[in-house]
Amino acid sequence: MSAPDAAQADEALPGAQTVRRAMAILRLVACGQERGVRLIDLERMSGLNRPTVHRLLKTLIQEGAVEQDAATRRYLIGPEISLLGLARTRRFPLLTLADPYLAELADQVGDTVFLSVRHGHDSICIGRKTGHHPIQVLSIEVGVRRPLGLGVSGVALLSCLPDAESAAIVQANAARLAVAGERADDILARVAQARASGIAHAPAGLMPGTSAVALPIRTESGEPLGAVTVTAMAERLAGGRLAQVVERMRDRAAAIARRHAEVSERRR
């Protein structure tokens, strides 16, 4: 059975559509981390009508998968999801092998280093190391889930993909990107620039006066394993110093890729 035929068969099963919609809502709620997500934003990003979103949320709350902040009325991931995650303590093998290289990079550049991976249409931060500079830019937390294309790590990951695939992902994320104030065309322009230069650079970062640069970690065949990002005060990622930081990032990304290849070869 082909993949499309299998997907159609799955949709025909009783409750399959409800499960898919519930999972989509969970992923959107996860994007809010500790601040939560408003009902109106869940409605806009999911493309579902309000009664359907509200019904799914009610069931997810009953199951402990989602909770609602009584003061803000925003929705957050519930304790049941966190407890289920404990069943897989070794779920991020890339983080395990990349950890010493990330620490080394943070020590070399003095600024904060992040490791992100692609999961479906999202990028997820799975690791963070701080450097020795007095001011560290902790722009995102470990566990942050964002639509691919939002932030330099997502742009770097998309830049590894063929044009048609990256465009399809960005278009699929268009509603979520719009809620964040981003246009799909602008994202695709950044992806094209990153594909040409090998880096995704945001001179103006998420926080005022900061900057960020990311580049992908690629397998030998060019597939993206993840993305390494450095965030710092804007003056620390400009001019000649930006070039120096990028050179060190490329060196450590290549080392992570080699280590991944070695481990993968031993497991065959």
UniProtKB/TrEMBL annotation:
MF terms (GO), sorted A to Z: DNA binding; DNA-binding transcription factor activity
Matching PANTHER family: HELIX-TURN-HELIX TRANSCRIPTIONAL REGULATOR, ICLR FAMILY (PTHR30136), TRANSCRIPTIONAL REGULATORY PROTEIN (PTHR30136:SF39)
PROSITE patterns (alphabetical): HTH_ICLR, ICLR_ED
GO terms classed as biological process: negative regulation of DNA-templated transcription
InterPro entries per UniProt: GAF-like_dom_sf, HTH_MetabolicPath_Reg, Tscrpt_reg_IclR_C, Tscrpt_reg_IclR_N, WH-like_DNA-bd_sf, WH_DNA-bd_sf
Species: Achromobacter insuavis
Keywords: DNA-binding, Transcription, Transcription regulation
Protein name according to UniProt: HTH-type transcriptional regulator XynR
Domain IclR-ED positions: 80-262
Residues in HTH iclR-type domain copies: 16-79
